Amino acid sequence: MIARADAAATLDALTLRDLAFAAGADDAGFVSIDNPALDDQRAEILAAFPFARTLISFVVRMSRENLRSPARSLANHEFHHAGADCDETAHALARALEARGVRAGFAPAGFPMEADRWPGKLWVIAHKPVAVAAGLGLMGIHRNVIHPKFGNFILLGTVAIDVDVAHVCAPIDDNPCLECKLCVAACPTGAIAADGHFDFAACYTHNYREFMGGFVDFVETVAEAKSARDYRGKRADSETVSMWQSLAYKPNYKAAYCLAVCPAGEDVIGAYRSDKAGFLRDIVDPLRKKAETIYVSAGSDAEEYVARRLPHKKIKRVGSVLRPANVDSFLAALTHVFQRNQSAGLDAAYHFTFTGAWPRQATIAISNRKIDVRDGLVGAADLAVVADGETWIRFLRKEASLPWALISRRIRLKGDPRLLAAFGRCFPA
Asked: Whole-structure pTM over 0.85, yes or no?
């Protein structure tokens, strides 16, 4: 028995790995809470688990063929089944550690999360950076962790404990990502670009259609419908049934094709290396050629991409699914929802001064299809915006009109007002 942890308590890494495997993990690694790689995660982890001194990161494998199937019901069943396995593994490992006198807590692989934080960071522990720091893989171009053996066909879990581990891990040296760009080819929204750019808004709007923001949009569509016939004109019966299925069972991803086509990992790469043409024909092409509805924001890069590259897929415009709740969430989201193709030709610096309940100043520079967001008023501005914070958020949520806000001087502009319209085109979500 290991006595309840004190300042000198340690746990042997081999013993800890054996416990993780016995609990159901397929691999496990360890990282100190003080590791610099966790600098942006530490405060929130300690807020949930103030006793944490070491994080155990573990992986649970998923069935590859279900995830590769064009039938998304099969893929989603595997996501949910493996997610339950992941949570059971974390639960079993925590109980085994508690039986040894070690304090242990864990966050679920997915839901439930802290929904009151919406639209900010809902999850308590970000499993991906913990897994990378613990040596269980590296991030691929598709923003998924690739395990050197199992590839990206894994789910991640984390258990926090109150003891040090005699041997902690380090990130692996070689990235398993092949940079084959199959995830780029398979993504139905163009969210993953060949140069490494990732359009979070495009991915979220479609793939997570039946999750948080998409559900909010669905409810508002129901609320705004004048009649059942009016609602049916906006949403097909199959969409309503699909939303019911996600509510009755568990939320279903619309795509996740980036995971499905990834050939990286020792256990996965053989089929790709031995017959690349066959891999493309049997795995990539069925997903790319699938006739399906792609959900996009009007005027977004995703809408343009689908129309140009995947004309056999149906485009459906939906309402905003990433609306800010306050000034802080507005500024935090800008880099994630920025549409670089819509910004083409724009070269401008914006000064924002927010007053009222959410006072803050920020500088936003857009140039060469890139965005830079900084605190404070930096340099000269092409357009200066002074706005009551609550009015600005109501304007973004389409609850207040810009002409009214300008006339009432709740929003004031100094500079070319056309730059505000150009700014808006960069953020259609």
From this structure: yes
